[in-house]
Amino acid sequence: MLKVFYSGTLRKGSIIHLAQEETHHLFHVLRASRNEKVVVLNGCGYYAEGYILDCKTQEIAIDGVHFTQNSNITLCPALLKNKAMDFLIRESTAIGVAKIIPLHTQNSEVKIQNIPEKQIHWNRIAREACKQSGNPSLPAIEIPQNLKDLKCSMSTFVAALRKDAKNIFHHQSTIKNNPITILIGPEGDFSEQEYQYLAQNNCHFVYLGKHILRAETAALYLLSVIDHILSA
Question: Domain of 190?
Fold first, then answer.
């Protein structure tokens, strides 16, 4: 079924008009026809069944509206190179995260020249991921910040290449009862100074099995395991 993104309020029995970019894609790229059914996502947890009322006026009629509670997971990855960061945003949106906060770390090699433009790009990728996956909740993607400006807590988990890291299943009760923050370091890992800072702020170090994973793969691995724990 066709899926579209609509940033306004969804009400049963209402008629909506999509934004220009969505309208173009639906009617000119996908060649949608009159009475064709669509799923409308608004990015705030609401989704609706609807159908195309009129192709000329580009109106969509809303039949029913539903709500799905978003996860309480914040993903904080070190800034990755363009394709890897785009991939991570796309797939973590599909899995379901509430917020994404890119991080500047000591071993990060990526520098962003135009942050507002990059945020627009990331949000476009997240919207497309919502439509592809059917996830009605669009994650908030914040501007990159320094690791030491991040508020950590006892429910902050760090993917760590350390001997004192524990299995994520060791923390199931914390995961099920608290908002979760996940930290993923750059390809060169967090520095020893950063690890000391995270330890002092009560973060939990967790390992991700016997293999060394790329940063984006590590993030998705950890998100998937936590999603499994929350769904059990």
Answer: 73-231
Instruction: Provide the CATH number for the domain around residue 136.
Output: 3.40.1280.10
Is 38:27 a contact under the CB 8 Å cutoff? Answer: no
Asked if residue 100 and residue 206 are part of one domain, the reply reads: yes
Q: How far apart are CA 94 and CA 35, in angstroms?
A: 28
Positions of the chain with pLDDT lower than 70, given as ranges: none
CB < 8 Å & 24+ apart, contacts of 66-69: 67/136, 68/136, 68/137, 69/45
The total domain count for the chain is 2
Q: Is the dihedral of CA 140, 110, 160, 215 positive or negative?
A: positive
Looking at 43, 67, 91, the residue that finishes a domain is 67
Residues 147, 216 within the same domain? yes
Pick from 67, 84, 105: which residue ends a domain? Answer: 67
Q: Tell the residue number behind the tokens 């520098």, with chain if given.
A: 111
Note the pLDDT of residue 76.
97
pLDDT in tens, 98-151: 999 999 999 988 888 899 999 999 999 999 999 999 999 999 999 999 999 998
Three-state secondary structure call for residue 12: coil
User: φ and ψ at 177, to 5 degrees?
Assistant: -120, 10
Please name which of 145, 103, 143 lies closest in space to residue 123, comparing C-alpha atoms.
Answer: 143
pTM: 0.91
Q: What is the dihedral of CA 84, 78, 74, 19, to 10 degrees?
A: -50
Pairing state of beta strands 15-16 and 2-5?
unpaired
Task: Give yes or no: residues 61 and 89 share one domain.
Answer: no
How much is the pLDDT for 108?
Answer: 87
Q: According to the model, what pLDDT value does residue 56 have? A: 86
